[in-house]
Amino acid sequence: MAVAELVSLNDLIAKCNRCGFCQAGCPVYRVTGEEHSLARGRMAIARGLMLGQFELTLEVVQALDDCLLCRGCTAHCFPGLKTDEVVTAVRHAFLARQGQPMWQRILFRSVLADSKRLEWACRMAVWAKRTGLASVAEQTGLLRIADQRIGGVNDVLASVPARIFRRGQRPAGGDPATAQRRIGYFVSCGLSFQFPEVVEATLRVLGRAGCAVTIMDNTCCGRPAAAHGDLEAARDIARRNVERLASAAYLDAIVSDCGSCSTYLKDYGRLLSGDAAYAERAAALSRKVQSFSEFVAAVGLGENLAAVEATVTYHDPCHLSNRFAKITAQPRALLKALPGLTYKEMPEADWCCGASGSYTFLHHTEATGVLDRKVDNVGKTGAAILATECPACMMHLAFGVRRKGLRIDVQHVSQLLDRATAAQSCRQPKPSPRRSTA
Question: Which domains does the chain have, with CATH numbers?
Answer without folding.
Answer: 4-98 (1.10.1060.10), 170-218+241-297 (3.40.50), 302-420 (3.40.50)
